[in-house]
Specification:
The structure holds two protein chains of two kinds. Chain A is α/β, with parallel strands linked by helices. Chain A has five helices and five strands; from the N terminus they run E-H-E-H-E-H-E-H-E-H. Chain A has a five-stranded parallel β-sheet with strand order 2-1-3-4-5, with helices on both faces. In chain A, strand 3, helix 3 and strand 4 form a beta-alpha-beta unit. In chain A, helix 2 runs parallel beside helix 3. By secondary structure, chain B is α+β, with helices and mostly antiparallel strands. Helix content of chain B is 57%, strand content 15%. Chain B is built from ten helices and eleven strands. In chain B, a hairpin with a 6-residue loop joins strand 3 and strand 4. In chain B, helix 3 runs parallel beside helix 4, helix 4 packs antiparallel against helix 5 and helix 6 crosses helix 7. The two termini of chain B are 68 Å apart. Classes of the chains: A alpha/beta, B alpha+beta. The interface between A and B is large, with 33 and 41 residues.
């Protein structure tokens, strides 16, 4: 059975995702910060990590980069519900949800999801990334 | 003004009168003296010659016949008419012409002056040499004719002098008019200038050089004044215009700041909101999946899911306003097809009492951005327009045209495509216009629209480096104008688009 690690600084979000994934039959671990996420990665050896991008202290993007370096086999699904409040523009460095998720993809995330997402979308993303 | 005329004229007149008063009597006295002298000479000289002639005659008379001869001569002398008295005095007795009209008592010996006696007779004595003993011939000549001539001559002189006086007074009157009139007109013009009418020209036609020069100098002063005045006025106007511009900019800046503040707030709320919505959506979907499809609970849960989806869409729209949404990649595209596509959609939903007219002024310039956003702009503006006419019906006009250097002060000069959406609806007042692009601002009834449409349009237009303006007359309608900058050449397109936004 595949093991999934969920990292989000909002416990309610983490728990909701755990509920969806456990119901679908996955083994789920939840961490409420990037630091704890890194520890859990070592301990639980998940196949997939679902992580928020904007988190205090250690940023989700750094977590994704660390996963890519240390655990190349682990698939990453990045989720975000809004970033800092930069101006909307077509400048390449504009910061928006879209930009963060694009950055997450660039950092190595296989899937990106915008909060709030549907249960179906989350499960579809996870299933796409399951090891055969 | 009257005072000037009076004083100028009075001064000239008094000068003329004084000169006349001083000169005329002098002239009269002088000329009279000359006339009198001349006439006297004319009278006295022949009289003397005549008496000498008579004396000679007496001298040559016979001694014996003297008495008779003398008497006859004296009579004949008196008969000539001019002599009124003739007598011969030999010391003892006096022989007198019987025809003398003047009594001999009145005749005096020393009467040689002319016109000095009241009897108007000029007496002349002449010694007559005779062998026996000398006698004195005395003749009296009538002066009255000559005196009359003198009086007539004096009258003529007086008349001439009076004529001269009246002529000089007339000349003085004319001269004072000639001098005073242009001065008075100058004064009137100067008064108008002083009263603030700086364009009253000082143009006096005068043959007097000094008046002309005065006019010339005053006119130069006036022109100087007009120039200074015009400069001051234009400076004040410019100052007013720049002040107006400054106020306008200040107002715009304040407006932008307020919108930016609201946007930041909305963005922050949206972020939190998305986190809260995630468990709501996921738990309700899990619960729905675990519930028999036809149960009442499933229906309830479905409603929660639908509501959650609506909330998610709302947040997306707020984020559009707060410039926080996911931007599709920018492309260079032409407005016309996008606008036409949006209008096709609108025609399907707009009631029949509203006419939609599209005036594409050519293809317009290509713009940089995302066509779906322009689609949204057209839909939102048109929706706003037809809702203003929903009850009354009317005309919704959409037009596209190219504008060079728009008159709007808030955007840089350059080439813009202008999209105008105007309606003939109820219009809105200035108080509404001040807040019209703010999120959640709506004049509609509660539950009828979110009040986000125009703020979203504002966000989209601003993100493309454009400008949206609104003009409205209550009862007549509203017109929105969207100015979108022409896309720069493809190489620098991205930077250019961004530059206009900053």
């Amino acid at each position: 059975m595949a093991c999934i690690l969920v990292v989000d600084d909002e416990p309610e979000v983490g728990e909701a995702i755990r509920r969806v994934l456990e119901r679908a039959g996955f083994s789920v671990a939840v961490a409420n910060s990037a630091d704890l996420g890194l520890l859990a990665l070592e301990k639980d050896q998940p196949d997939i990590i679902v992580t928020d991008v904007i988190m205090p202290k250690v940023h989700g993007l750094e977590l994704i980069k660390a996963v890519r370096e240390r655990y190349p086999r682990v698939r990453v699904i990045a989720i975000s519900g809004g970033g800092s409040f930069g101006l909307l523009s077509y400048k390449p460095d504009a910061i928006s949800t879209h930009a963060y998720l694009a950055a997450a993809r660039e950092a190595g995330a296989e899937e990106i999801l915008t909060k709030p997402f549907d249960m179906g979308d989350l499960l579809a993303a996870v299933r796409r990334q399951l090891p055969n | 003004m009257e005072r000037l005329i009076n004083s100028l004229r009075a001064r000239l007149m008094s000068v003329v009168l004084v000169i006349n008063a001083a000169l005329v009597p002098l002239l009269y006295l002088g000329v009279s003296a000359i006339v009198e002298e001349g006439y006297a000479e004319q009278f006295v000289n022949p009289v003397r010659s005549y008496s000498r002639l008579v004396a000679d005659e007496l001298e040559s008379a016979d001694e014996a016949d003297f008495e008779r001869r003398a008497g006859a001569l004296l009579d004949s002398v008196v008969l000539t008419g001019q002599v009124v008295f003739a007598q011969i005095d030999d010391g003892q007795r006096k022989l007198r012409s019987s025809l003398s009209t003047v009594p001999s008592a009145a005749a005096r010996h020393d009467d040689f002056s002319f016109g000095s006696q009241a009897d108007q007779v000029y007496y002349i004595s002449h010694p007559v040499k005779r062998a026996s003993r000398p006698v004195v011939l005395r003749l009296g000549f009538d002066e009255s004719l000559t005196l009359e001539r003198i009086a007539a001559a004096k009258r003529r002189v007086l008349a001439a002098l009076l004529a001269f006086t009246s002529a000089s007074i007339a000349v003085a009157i004319w001269l004072s008019a000639v001098i005073a009139r242009p001065m008075v007109r100058l004064q009137e013009a100067a008064k108008r200038v002083a009263g603030g009418d700086f364009h009253a020209q000082l143009q006096m036609r005068s043959s007097i050089r000094e008046v002309q020069e005065l006019n010339h100098h005053l006119e130069r002063m006036r022109q100087e004044l007009v120039g200074t005045n015009d400069r001051l006025e234009s400076e004040m106007r410019e100052r007013g215009v720049s002040e107006q511009k400054r106020l306008d900019l200040e107002r715009r800046l304040l407006h932008r700041e307020r919108i930016a503040t609201i946007g930041t707030l909305a963005g922050g709320v949206a972020h939190e909101f998305n986190n809260i919505m995630t468990p709501i959506l996921l738990y309700s979907q899990v619960a729905l999946a675990d519930t028999p499809a036809d149960s009442a609970l499933a229906k309830d849960l479905t409603r929660i899911v639908v509501a959650a989806h609506r909330a998610r869409n709302l947040v997306t729209r707020i984020l559009t306003f707060s410039r926080e949404m996911d931007l599709p990649p920018a492309t260079v595209f032409s407005l016309r097809p996008t606008v036409e596509e949006a209008l096709t959609l609108l025609r399907a939903i707009v009631p029949a009492n509203i006419e939609i007219a599209f005036h594409p002024g050519g293809e317009g310039l290509p713009v940089l951005g995302d066509p779906s956003l322009i689609h949204q702009v057209v839909i939102n503006l048109c929706t706003n327009g037809y809702q203003a006419m929903r009850r009354s019906g009317g005309r919704l006009a959409v037009s596209l045209c190219v504008v060079e250097n728009p008159a709007e002060s808030q955007i840089d000069p350059g080439r813009y495509t202008m999209l105008e959406v105007s309606d003939t609806g109820h219009g809105v007042d200035a108080a509404v216009i001040a807040h019209i692009f703010e999120p959640f601002f709506t004049t509609r009834d509660v539950g009828d629209g979110t009040g986000l449409g125009l703020s979203v349009v504002h966000g989209i237009v601003t993100s493309m480096g454009g400008l949206i303006t609104v003009e409205s007359v209550v009862g007549r309608g509203t017109a929105f104008r969207v100015y979108l900058p022409a896309a720069a050449p493809p190489a620098g397109a991205l930077e250019e688009g961004a530059g206009a936004t900053n």
